[in-house]
Each structure stands twice: as structure tokens, then as C-alpha cells.
Write a structure and sequence with these properties.
By secondary structure, the protein is α/β, with parallel strands linked by helices. It has 16 helices and 20 strands. It has helices at about 30-40, 45-50, 85-105, 115-120, 125-135, 165-190, 200-215, 220-230, 230-235, 280-285, 290-305, 350-365, 380-385, 395-410, 440-455, 485-495; strands at about 1-5, 15-25, 60-65, 75-80, 110, 155-160, 215-220, 245-250, 260-265, 265-270, 310-320, 335, 340-345, 370-375, 390-395, 415, 435, 460-465, 470, 480. The strands form four sheets. Strands 7, 8, 9, 10, 11, 14, 15, 16 and 18 form a nine-stranded mixed β-sheet that branches. It has a six-stranded mixed β-sheet with strand order 1-6-5-2-4-3, with helices on one face. Strands 12-13-17 form a three-stranded mixed β-sheet, with helices on one face. The protein starts with a strand and ends with a helix. It binds ligand BES and zinc ion (2 copies). One zinc ion binds near residues 271, 273 and 350.
């Protein structure tokens, strides 16, 4: 999709469709829609008075203009209640239009910006949101059908903007595209079947990003993991014929600074539960157990493109949790890379075991603040459904910074407590920690376990088992992998 700027008023643009906005409370057309309405003989006003256009959030009404203005159609989008308007809602609204236009085969679109939006938000933020929302909206998961239905593409979108500087437009377009493409990349990776996206393939993806963005990359294979004593990643992967890898990508945007953000993403390309195997209906979809890794890779791609003044090291432990004669067992005690011993109480609580080594590795590579992101627990879906990620932290200031980044990026996170009473859930009789104890507070138990490995370094844990998947197509989301966390991780690095 090509984005261009024009100063031509939207009612004069010759495109397949112009996109307009209407809020809920308005009795007649908004100021922004007025000129178009007049030019098309007040058809929009009529539809409003007849109750067909209500301005309800994400409502879409397409009107054919029959030669009254150069554009063939006007698409009127409902922005919902005026006081509820946010950049996040704006993204969902335009995503709906982008999906519609794509399905209809519309190739040229024009989009304006109501003046009152630019009074409430900066021009860069509004433009970023318009671009990001539409780029997220046109995304479709790849398919492996022999005969693919010909996929229609929007070719270009004109932003009809009058009083905005070229540099603001340029920055907004660039950010919108980069945030959305990184998220779409994470969605695509997460969606891949496990027989396509193996740990080895994950390494190839990381190499491609490193090369494209000039990042340094280090990949530890099984031999190297053994040499370094990464017992967590080795134990989880030992029941699979797929070789495990620890991947590290480094972006140095502030070489003079001693501060480095460490991103650690769970990269289980499939999780069948291990010897304590998952029931059949819980196993389907476990190819998406690398959603954390996908978000980290997508974010590194974006960070490499936007080049913020900061340092980031991204670590991805990647392997498969499977079963053969070598599989790790409940009751096994393993020595993690940190030296801490772990009693395996449940082989399906494997994510935290590989992340333990990932967190330690990120610290040894110089991370001074850590964010781990993982499809860690089914329990977070019970707590928060698919609407929000669970967040836990050992540092309130850093926790706050991640919450703010998520809010700005338009992603939801919700903090769960780490009261000391919960600590008994990770106590083991024979090892330093236990990976599970059957506690009902499953998400908190997972977070507490990971906190042991952050070991005092400011750390935030994001559990995206729920938010990583959308149950149906809605706003910016398609059904399935959402790319959750990608935009939060980009935003956090944007200093
Ligand atoms: N990968 C799963 C968590 C998950 C569940 C992700 C549903 C996406 C959707 C994780 O490895 C797991 O199996 N967790 C167990 C932990 C338990 C055995 C302590 C869980 O949540 O049931
Ligand atoms: Zn599991
Ligand atoms: Zn898992």
C-alpha cells in the first residue's frame, strides 16, 4: 500500500472511495463531512435523519456518488461517542474500512483528518494511527491452499491534509507503517504451522532481520548450550528431534550509554505438554506458543528501522516441547544457566524453564532492564480473557513505564499482584525453585518463578496467552494470532 499526501480537499479527490468520519451525538453531518454532503445532494444528511447512519463505533456505510463528485464512493465511518474517541479506537475504525475496501477491490482511497481530532492529538499521532490502523486492517493470515482466491490489494491511499507540515506527515506515515508491518510480521510468524516454523526456521528469520537492519546476531546451538550449561532450554527440548537454539540480536543505538533494554520472548514452536501431555482439545493451536518470540522479532525489525537512541538486546530461547524416550520427566531436577536448580513438577510448565535461561543470558549480555513476553499460562485467559495481557513486575517505576508504552501503543495490559503469600507456590523441597505446584493462581505462580531469574534487575513479565489470540475478526484484529506485545515493545524503546 502506498501512502501519499495531498492538499486537495477530500471532496475533490478522484479515487475509488473517500473515507469520512461521523460521531454518535451529531444530529446532522459534522463540519468535516459537510462539503461532501452538499456536493452529493445531502445524501449523508438524509441517511442520518433516517437513522441509517448513527455514528456508532465501527459502523460503516458506503454511498455511491454517481458522478456528483470525482470519487466513486464515500465510506462514512462511525467513530462512536465523542468523549470516548482515542487513537486506539481510531485505528479500529479505519481498519474496518481498510478490510471493507480490500474485499471490494477498491484500489485508490482518500482519507482526511477532522480538525477536532488534530486539536486533541498531535498531527504525527493521528497520521500514525490512520496509517497503522489501515495497514493492520488489510492483514490476512497466509494460507497453504493450492488454489488461493485472488487476493485484492489496495494500491494507494491519499491523505488529504491541509494545515500539517510535510515532516509531520512523513514521520506519521513512517511510524504507522513500521509499527503495523512489525505486528503483521509477528502475526504471520505466530500463525505458521509447527511443521513449517521449526526452531531452525526461527533462527533463519532472526538472521534475516539482523541482516536487513544491521543488527548483530549470535545463535547458540545444542553443543554451545551444553558448553554454557543452559540446562533449562536443554531439558525442555530433549524430548524432541528438533535442535534447540538460543538466539540473541543486539541493537546499539546509544553506544555511550550503559543502559540496555533486554527483551526475552518464549519461542516454543510447538508445546504438546511433554510427558504430562495436553488433552487433545488443548493441544490444537500450540504452534502459537512462540508468540512472545514473534513479538520480540517484530519489535527488533521495527527498532532497526526507526533507530531510537537506546540499546536493546533481544533473546529468544526456541525449541519444541515433545515426547520421545529422552523427554524430561516430572520430578527431574535441572541446573539452569543461572546456577539455580529447578524441580520439574509439571512438564507442561515449560515456557518459564526456557525463559529462565533466556533471562539469565540477556543479563549476561548486558541487559539492565528486562521484559519477558510469553504465551505462558492458560490461567491468564481465565483471568483476563483475550482482551488484555497479564503484567507482573519487581520494579514499580519500570512496570509503570511498560504500562505507559502499552497504553500509547494501544495494547492492553493488566497488573497482577505478587503478594508474598504466593511465594510458597515456587518453593521446592529439593531444589531452589519448583516450576509448578498446581496452584490456582497459575499466572502469578509463573511470574514469581521468572522473577527469581531476573534476580533484582528491574523486570516486567507479559503473559500474552490470551491477548495473543483473537476469537474473531474485529477492528484491527483478524481471527487468530494478534501479534500482541509487538507495538508495546517498539514503543518502550522509542526514547
Ligand atoms: N503454552 C502453554 C500456555 C497456553 C495455554 C498458551 C493456552 C496459549 C493458550 C503453557 O506452556 C502451559 O501449558 N501452561 C500450563 C502450566 C501449568 C501446567 C502449570 C497451563 O497454563 O495450564
Ligand atoms: Zn506448556
Ligand atoms: Zn507453552
Amino acid at each position: 500500500m502506498e501512502w501519499r499526501r495531498t492538499e486537495t480537499p477530500i471532496e475533490q479527490t478522484a479515487v475509488d472511495a473517500i473515507i469520512l468520519f461521523q460521531t454518535e451525538e451529531k444530529e446532522g453531518v459534522s463540519e468535516f463531512v459537510k462539503k461532501v454532503d452538499e456536493a452529493i445532494e445531502h445524501r449523508i444528511s438524509v441517511l442520518i435523519s433516517e437513522g441509517e447512519i448513527t455514528g456508532k463505533y465501527c459502523e460503516l456505510t458506503a454511498i455511491h456518488n454517481w458522478g456528483k463528485i470525482p470519487a466513486k464512493r464515500a465510506i462514512v465511518l462511525g467513530l462512536g461517542a465523542e468523549e470516548k474517541i482515542s487513537l486506539d479506537r481510531l485505528k479500529n475504525v479505519v481498519a474496518t474500512a481498510a478490510r471493507y475496501a480490500k474485499k471490494k477491490g477498491l484500489k485508490q482511497l482518500a482519507l482526511g483528518c477532522p480538525t477536532w481530532l488534530s486539536e486533541r492529538f498531535t498531527a504525527v499521532d493521528v497520521i500514525q494511527s490512520l496509517v497503522e490502523g489501515m495497514e493492520l486492517g488489510v492483514y490476512q493470515h497466509p494460507s497453504y491452499k493450492q488454489k488461493e482466491e485472488s487476493s485484492k490489494q489496495i494500491e494507494s491511499i491519499w491523505l488529504s491534509l491541509q494545515d500539517v507540515s510535510d515532516s509531520a506527515v512523513k514521520t506519521g506515515i513512517e511510524r504507522g507503517k513500521v509499527y503495523a508491518h512489525a505486528t503483521n510480521y509477528a502475526r504471520m510468524l505466530t500463525h505458521e504451522p509447527a511443521n513449517f516454523l521449526t526452531p531452525h526456521k526461527m533462527v533463519q528469520h532472526a538472521r534475516q532481520i539482523a541482516e536487513k537492519r544491521g543488527l548483530s546476531i549470535e545463535v547458540l546451538n545444542k553443543e554451545k548450550l551444553q558448553e554454557l550449561g543452559m540446562g533449562g532450554l536443554l531439558a525442555v527440548s530433549q524430548g524432541s528431534s528438533q535442535e534447540p537454539y538460543m538466539i540473541a540480536l543486539t541493537y546499539k543505538g546509544a553506544p555511550e550509554s550503559a543502559e540496555t533494554l533486554g527483551y526475552v520472548g518464549k519461542g516454543l514452536t510447538f508445546d504438546n505438554g511433554g510427558l504430562q501431555i495436553k488433552p487433545a482439545n488443548y493441544m490444537y493451536g500450540m504452534n502459537e506458543d512462540m508468540g512472545g518470540a514473534a513479538a520480540v522479532l517484530g519489535a527488533m525489525d521495527a527498532i532497526g528501522a526507526l533507530k531510537p537512541h537506546t540499546n536493546v538486546v533481544a533473546v529468544i530461547p526456541t525449541c519444541e516441547n515433545a515426547i520421545n524416550g529422552e523427554a524430561f520427566r516430572p520430578g527431574d531436577v535441572i541446573t539452569s544457566y543461572s546456577g539455580k536448580t529447578i524441580e520439574i513438577h509439571h512438564t507442561d510448565a515449560e515456557g518459564r524453564v526456557v525463559l529462565a535461561d533466556g533471562i539469565t543470558y540477556a543479563k549476561r549480555l548486558g541487559a539492565t532492564k528486562l521484559v519477558d513476553i510469553a504465551t505462558l499460562t492458560g490461567a491468564v485467559i481465565i483471568a483476563l480473557g483475550h482482551e488484555s495481557a497479564g503484567l507482573m513486575s519487581n520494579d514499580s517505576a519500570f512496570g509503570q513505564a511498560v504500562k505507559k508504552a502499552a497504553h500509547v501503543a494501544g495494547e492492553r495490559v493488566w497488573e497482577l499482584p505478587m503478594y508474598e503469600e504466593y511465594e510458597e507456590h515456587i518453593k521446592s523441597d529439593i531444589a531452589d525453585v519448583k516450576n509448578d505446584d498446581g496452584s490456582k493462581a497459575g499466572t502469578i505462580q509463573g511470574g514469581l518463578f521468572l522473577r527469581e531469574f531476573a534476580d533484582g534487575t528491574p523486570w516486567v513479565h507479559l503473559d500474552i496467552a490470551g491477548s495473543g489470540e483473537a476469537m474473531r475478526e474485529k477492528g484491527i484484529h483478524v481471527k487468530g494470532a494478534t501479534g500482541a506485545g509487538t507495538r508495546t515493545l517498539i514503543q518502550l524503546a522509542m526514547v
